[in-house]
Design a protein that fits this description.
This is VOC domain-containing protein. This protein has 2 helices and 8 strands. The chain is 16% helix and 38% strand.
Length: 120
Amino acid sequence: MTDRAIPVLPSRSFDATIAFYGRLGFEAVHDDGWLILRRGTVQLEFYDAPDADPATSDAMCVLRVADVDALVADIRAAGVPEATVGCPRLHPVRREASGLRIGYLVDLDGTQLNLVEDAG
């Protein structure tokens, strides 16, 4: 097995999290007091946080993907709106000062996922 780090994110409801991320192409591979979702080689893990407040969440992680446009297309197809407030929401991909192409997804629990195209 290759060493790796995996984000652990809050979920107010595992059922809602599975439904939301399922529309984005993630599959639940474990749901027994701890939720693990996968989409290809991307894995997200969630802990039960029924009292989490999406409006004050500071949870975030980075998803480095080969094709950020394909991921964003799936997010749009799932009905996530482009917006600057509210949960969930999508901020479109832009080339940042770093030279990287980055978009942002805020999920239904207020977690910000930085969608980074990994050029290499």
